């Protein structure tokens, strides 16, 4: 009963938008329990470090909240509250600055403490990026690594779709509350339901929370904080994925980046990460090795399976050099698809670029 009451009043206090994770943590520390923090008059919050300038706003909001009814609404939607003091709370997330004092979870909360790797990137994903996500998703699923991402267009959606398709476990961290009506973008609604059924949805925002632009970069600290490492697939210089990578670095976690063409705008950020010292993500094997997981988990290259396009190219290539233009004419693929396919095959160690537009098959 004590834990249930703590969750009821923690959620009630979290419904007051003037309280972020830092202020909530201060309230808990000052009053000693969520119940006492809720029962206290808001004027006493000043002693907990809350600015007196927002006390009137807090009073007005608090008067409209019924703690028990608000918590019952969560229960009806099968949304669990996980407090930072619980064993179910992700241990990795406890290590970060401004960790959320409570999380909202739909799905299998046990995954919060599984072996996790974040995979993030641009919304403007290329064919190459899609191929990488397919290989990463299948490789990580094969090795029982839980994939953490957002639910945005592009890399987020591709990696989570690949994870689900390959019967892996995924965690989607949202910048909204977890009610179905709040899932965004709506085009990823069905994906969110699959993740909730096979993995879990996570948020620090209570039901009815306003969706604000700043929620998304703030949310990224949780994606990085939940994970042993962050892999950036594709990102421009100003991509939000780089915010996640920076959070990971601040949290003393490993950062990996997938190398891309110097001519690709969505590879400028990943190539820059590598220039600054990020690990090159060429295979699930090397990711696991860097994380000291290779001895415990059978590591298959993320570049093992081949797509239909890759099979076409491999069937045309041999030990004798073939020029790119001849290859394109032979396999009847567009130049963009052929180039992306060759890049993937190079990363898989299946073909070699000899320079001058000539390629050979290695294996």
Describe the biggest sheet? 9 strands, mixed
Record the strand order, biggest sheet: 1-2-6-5-4-3-7-8-9
**The first-level CATH class name of the largest domain:** Alpha Beta
Order of helices and strands: HHHHHEHEEHEHEHEHEHEHEHHEHHEE
Count of the domains: 3
Supply the CATH architecture of the largest domain.
Answer: 3-Layer(aba) Sandwich
Tally of contiguous helical segments: 16
Q: Give the overall silhouette.
A: elongated
Low-confidence stretches: 295-303
Give the N-to-C terminal Cα separation. 63 Å
Cα Rg: 23 Å
Throw out a few tags for this protein.
3 domains; Rossmann fold; Arc Repressor Mutant, subunit A; single chain; 43% helix; elongated; nine-stranded mixed beta sheet; 13% strand; 363 residues; DNA polymerase, domain 1; 16 helices; alpha/beta
Quick rundown:
Residues 82-291 form the Smf/DprA SLOG domain. This is DNA protecting protein DprA. By secondary structure, this protein is an alpha/beta fold.
Task: Write structural notes for this entry.
There is one protein chain. By secondary structure, this protein is an alpha/beta fold. It has 3 domains: 2-76, DNA polymerase, domain 1; 109-290, Rossmann fold; 308-361, Arc Repressor Mutant, subunit A, CATH 1.10.10.10. Helices cover 43% and strands 13% of the residues. The chain is built from 16 helices and 12 strands. The protein has a 9-stranded mixed beta sheet with strand order 1-2-6-5-4-3-7-8-9, with helices on both faces. The chain has a 3-stranded antiparallel beta sheet with strand order 10-12-11. Strand 8, helix 12 (268-275) and strand 9 form a beta-alpha-beta unit. Helix 1 packs across helix 5 (67-76), helix 7 packs parallel to helix 8 and helix 8 crosses helix 9. The model is unreliable at 295-303 (pLDDT under 50).
């Amino acid at each position: 009963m004590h834990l249930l009451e703590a969750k009821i009043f923690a959620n009630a206090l979290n419904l007051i938008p003037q309280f972020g994770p830092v202020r909530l943590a201060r309230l808990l520390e000052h009053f000693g329990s969520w119940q006492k923090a809720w029962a206290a008059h808001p004027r006493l919050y000043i002693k907990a470090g809350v600015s007196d300038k927002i006390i009137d706003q807090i009073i007005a909001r608090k008067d409209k909240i019924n703690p028990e009814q608000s918590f019952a609404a969560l229960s009806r939607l099968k949304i669990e509250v996980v407090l930072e003091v619980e064993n179910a709370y992700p241990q990795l997330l406890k290590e970060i600055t401004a960790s959320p004092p409570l999380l909202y979870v739909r799905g299998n909360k046990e995954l919060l403490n599984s072996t996790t790797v974040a995979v993030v990137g641009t919304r403007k994903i290329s064919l190459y990026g899609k191929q990488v996500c397919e290989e990463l998703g299948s490789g990580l699923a094969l090795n029982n690594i839980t994939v953490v991402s957002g639910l945005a267009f592009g890399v987020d959606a591709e990696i989570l779709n690949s994870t689900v398709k390959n019967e892996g476990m995924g965690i989607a961290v949202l910048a909204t509350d977890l009610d179905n009506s709040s899932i965004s973008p709506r085009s990823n609604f069905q994906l969110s339901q699959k993740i909730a059924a096979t993995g879990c949805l996570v948020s620090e925002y209570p039901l009815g929370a306003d969706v604000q632009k700043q929620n998304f970069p703030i949310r990224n600290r949780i994606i990085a904080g939940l994970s042993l490492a962050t892999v950036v697939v594709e990102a421009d210089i100003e991509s939000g994925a780089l915010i996640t990578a920076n959070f990971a670095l601040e949290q003393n976690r490993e950062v990996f980046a997938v190398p891309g063409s110097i001519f690709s705008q969505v590879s400028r950020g990943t190539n820059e990460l590598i220039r600054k010292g990020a690990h090159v993500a060429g295979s699930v094997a090397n990711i696991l090795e860097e994380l000291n997981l290779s001895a415990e988990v059978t590591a298959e290259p993320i570049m093992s399976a081949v797509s239909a396009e890759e099979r076409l190219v491999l069937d045309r290539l041999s030990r004798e050099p073939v020029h790119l233009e001849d290859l394109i004419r032979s396999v009847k693929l567009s130049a963009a698809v052929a180039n992306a396919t060759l890049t993937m095959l190079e990363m898989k160690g299946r073909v070699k670029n000899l320079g001058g537009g000539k390629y050979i098959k290695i294996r």
